[in-house]
């Protein structure tokens, strides 16, 4: 009796979809999709009556990725980029092959959020690990740009209060020195 009601409901849903679209091919597409679902040929389809052991195994795999993501977030500075990429790609494969229910998707999304936060943390660490420029090289290049007479006048202060800044072409100095800096040039560089 219950299966007959369910079949009637499914048939009415199919007919209502066909009526809305007005296309006879839609009914064939719906039947083909249902056949593929029943045969297990489609990936990423919600399966409410999935085997419990299969569901447990899928959730165990996804929780493993979630735990590794949590560990990686705690030790973001020690995690290599290759390891991080491998874990994210593995989670993507697990999503495609294991997620078939909302509970699986919840675990997967938590793991993905943790990997996202780990990536953000690694990006912030990367930004602070790189120095903007090498100060010794900057000073050396700056001395090369300055005219020898200016360097001599700065070294031997003649007491007239001039610092030599009027004779320095700051635009030329900036143009020549910027290739040695890793920072974005700004208007108030010097």
From TrEMBL:
InterPro entries: Nse4/EID (IPR027786), Nse4_Nse3-bd (IPR029225)
Domain Nse4/EID protein Nse3/MAGE-binding per the UniProt entry, residue ranges: 108-163
Chief site of localization: nucleus
Region (Disordered): 1-28
Sorted UniProt keywords: DNA damage, DNA recombination, DNA repair, Nucleus
Subunit-level organization: Component of the SMC5-SMC6 complex.
UniProt-listed PANTHER family: NON-STRUCTURAL MAINTENANCE OF CHROMOSOMES ELEMENT 4
Purpose: Component of the SMC5-SMC6 complex, that promotes sister chromatid alignment after DNA damage and facilitates double-stranded DNA breaks (DSBs) repair via homologous recombination between sister chromatids.
Entry's family note: Belongs to the NSE4 family.
Name of the protein described by the UniProt record: Non-structural maintenance of chromosomes element 4
Native source organism of the sequence: Puccinia graminis f. sp. tritici
Gene name in the database record: NSE4_1
């Amino acid at each position: 009796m219950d299966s007959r009601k369910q079949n009637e409901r499914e048939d009415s849903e199919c007919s209502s979809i066909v009526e809305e679209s007005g296309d006879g091919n839609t009914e064939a597409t719906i039947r083909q999709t249902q056949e593929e679902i029943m045969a297990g040929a489609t990936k990423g389809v919600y399966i409410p009556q999935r085997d419990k052991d299969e569901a447990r195994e899928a959730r165990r795999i996804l929780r493993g990725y979630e735990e590794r993501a949590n560990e990686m977030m705690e030790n973001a500075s020690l995690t290599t980029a290759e390891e991080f990429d491998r874990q994210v790609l593995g989670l993507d494969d697990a999503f495609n092959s294991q997620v078939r229910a909302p509970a699986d998707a919840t675990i997967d999304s938590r793991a993905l959020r943790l990997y996202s936060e780990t990536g953000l943390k690694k990006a912030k660490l990367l930004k602070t690990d790189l120095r903007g420029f090498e100060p010794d090289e900057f000073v050396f290049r700056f001395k090369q740009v300055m005219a020898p007479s200016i360097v001599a006048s700065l070294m031997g202060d003649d007491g007239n209060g001039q610092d030599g800044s009027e004779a320095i072409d700051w635009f030329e100095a900036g143009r020549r020195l910027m290739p040695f800096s890793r920072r974005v040039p700004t208007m108030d560089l010097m």
